[in-house]
């Protein structure tokens, strides 16, 4: 778990070299979740770290993975209005019609 904490810290601070280093040693980190259920991709997208998002996607981060509320990285960037990140996620296969757990079902 120590590596996961370091990994999420490196994402938040934008330390691309540390991210690359940790992924080389522990490639499974790209799919891990933090205590709130955030994946590295969702976490990086939340902080508008486009270069980190690109790095994670190049390491096969699961683009449609969800957090504890069912949010994907695309849902998060759409909510925040980050068009560039939305386009990047779509390029890597993000599901455009994904819904979180809060979506009203008719």
Automatic annotation (TrEMBL):
Pfam families: Ank_2. PROSITE patterns: ANK_REP_REGION, ANK_REPEAT. Signal peptide: none annotated. The keyword Repeat applies. InterPro entries: Ankyrin_rpt (IPR002110), Ankyrin_rpt-contain_sf (IPR036770). Keywords: ANK repeat, Repeat. It comes from the Bacteria. ANK repeats lie at residues 36-68, 69-101. This is Ankyrin-like protein.
């Amino acid at each position: 778990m120590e590596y996961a904490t370091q990994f999420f810290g490196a994402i938040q601070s934008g330390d691309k070299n540390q991210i690359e280093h940790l992924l080389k040693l522990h490639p499974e980190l790209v799919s891990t979740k933090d205590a709130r259920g955030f994946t590295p991709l969702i976490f990086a997208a939340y902080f508008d770290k486009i270069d980190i998002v690109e790095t994670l996607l190049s390491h096969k981060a699961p683009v449609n993975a969800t957090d504890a509320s069912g949010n994907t990285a695309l849902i998060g960037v759409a909510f925040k209005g980050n068009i560039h990140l939305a386009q990047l996620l779509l390029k890597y296969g993000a599901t455009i019609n994904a819904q979180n757990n809060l979506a009203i079902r008719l």
